[in-house]
Amino acid sequence: MSVCCLLDRPSPDSSMSPSVEELRARIVDLDSEIDLQKKLLKKLEKDRSLAQRHLNAVLDPMSRLPPEISSEIFLQSLPASPSGMQGALTALLKVCSAWTDIALATPVLWTTVHIDFPCDDALAEVLPIWFGRARHRPLTIFISLRGRCFNWNHRVSDVLWRHGGQVKHLEIFDDDDFATRDEDDQTIDLFGENTPVSLPLLETLMIRCQHQHRNYLAPQILELVRRAPNIVESTFNMATVNAFNDGDPKMVEVPTLRRVMFEDIGHDDILQYLSLPALETLSVPLSTIMDGDFLAFLERSGASLRDLTLGSSFRDMDSLDLYEYLRSVPKLTKFTMWLPGSDVVTELFAAFADYSLLPSLDDLTIYLNHEGNLHISDSSWRTLVRVLSSRGMEQLYITPILVSLPMDVLDSLRELTIDGANIWIGTEERNFVGA
């Protein structure tokens, strides 16, 4: 019975009131008709949505592309900055159901995650969904920390450590612009009450802190490296605290780690307990390293070293220390020095007269300390020419040299360039050898 029929029933005689049974029966009939109309409306809405999708498919060229092409377009459209990727992906999901289906069916879209501390605890519930969309693909994780140390959210980081089996690249960036110099707020606790279970895929680890008063615990850094059996490269720019609860830790040997860069002070606590037999590239400022500790590290880890960069604080270095460092890296092919004084450079030229020292070296770069006395004697330059002629070095770069070299030295160096050597001695703007 239709609604119209029910409404068209003649009104009962005003003198006769409908019975209770009649009113209940009428309500039942109306309820049934309402349910029927709701189902019909739902079907019509579904049919309309389907027709709209078909219309969109006709009008939208993206919908006519093969899914793999659309996926590649999505990938190419993502912003270069990790911090913008989440917003871009969320926007893709809101365009239409077709784009949502394509995005969710493309796991590689979800393999880069940016975590920005401080953040709400709700992110701990969202991260597993995001990781699930990556479908066990290797993850790249960027963590940014702003403000006080307690802005590090352990509920969120615990989720990350539990999914450590997927993490291939991990970068932690501590922003100096928002940091604080509060003495009670200096040390970052990466783990809280939980330590990473395993990081089997981790290949690169980078921890950068722009705040000179911020500290990271050396034992936790060692623990991250120890739990990453396939780590290849690590970069540290931070201060560390030698805070071991149970005495000094055991030596950590990492047979896969090939490239290690320290970009700032405070890393000596880590070097004391690392053994890196496969190390090929090392960059270390000498600001806080104890000579004996660094020499011991090189003796453990320098056998395979090919590329060594030493920076700053050469002023107090004994020439014997530098000589012993270089004796510990017999396979070195590239050596870079940052901010040595002229005296250190002079001693280095003299040391190269021992041809058993760095016999494979073919690339030498020296950025002199321009705040000191930059004078290098003519005899030292002539010593360098003899070394270069005998060693067959391919690359030499020394700057800043403000005064031209003796003419006989320049003539000899130019002859070497004719034979194929690449030599630059002068300022960034002027090469005396090429003049």
UniProtKB/TrEMBL annotation:
InterPro entries associated with the record: LRR_dom_sf
Gene3D superfamilies per UniProt: Ribonuclease Inhibitor
Sorted UniProt keywords: Coiled coil
Coiled coil: 20-47
Domain of life: Eukaryota
Name of the featured protein: F-box domain-containing protein
Organism of derivation: Mycena sanguinolenta
